[in-house]
Design brief:
Blueprint: H1 4-9, E1 17-20, E2 24-28, E3 38-42, H2 54-74, E4 80-84, E5 99-105, H3 112-119, H4 131-143
Antiparallel strand pairs: 1-2, 2-3, 3-5, 4-5
Helix pairs in contact: 2-4
Length: 146
């Protein structure tokens, strides 16, 4: 089986990395729900958060917290951060590999976020970042990681 997130973790597919440790890997989301959206991938190929060890779950959340703080330090327009895990296909998990979405919230995006959530892979009008902007965001976030 070929898992896109496992391929990214093994550097077989390109991604804009903002964070990496022994348990997880933070990358810029190519289909962001808002500018600066990061996905934290588990290094373990499991479909559900309950299949991770307690150490892996703790690392995933700690990485998400660090990235959330770095996002807020990067852009003062970010008001809050939304942390989201879709745990299974009925919970809208598109890739059967545990991952945590770290989604910056700007205050103006409340009405748009549900629409983007439901249509982000299909709607060409959704917010799409260029490779240049994804790379710049990744570098900015990395520079603010604690």
């Amino acid at each position: 089986m070929s898992c896109v997130f496992c391929q990214i973790n093994r550097s077989e597919l390109p991604a804009y990395t903002v964070y990496r440790d022994n348990d997880c890997h933070g990358i810029m989301d190519k289909f962001p729900l808002s500018p600066g959206h990061v996905i934290v991938l588990s290094h373990s190929h499991v479909g559900s958060i309950s299949e991770l060890s307690s150490q892996e779950r703790a690392s995933l959340m700690e990485a998400g917290n660090k990235i959330g703080l770095a996002l807020k330090a990067t852009n003062k327009k970010i008001k809050d951060v939304h942390y989201l895990i879709n745990d299974g296909p009925e919970a809208n998990q598109h890739v059967p590999h545990v991952h945590l979405h770290v989604i910056p919230r700007y205050g103006w995006d409340l009405g748009l976020l549900p629409y983007r959530f439901l249509t982000r892979f299909a709607n060409p009008l959704n917010y799409v970042l260029s490779d240049k902007r994804l790379s710049a965001w990744a570098e900015e976030i990395k520079s603010h990681l604690l």
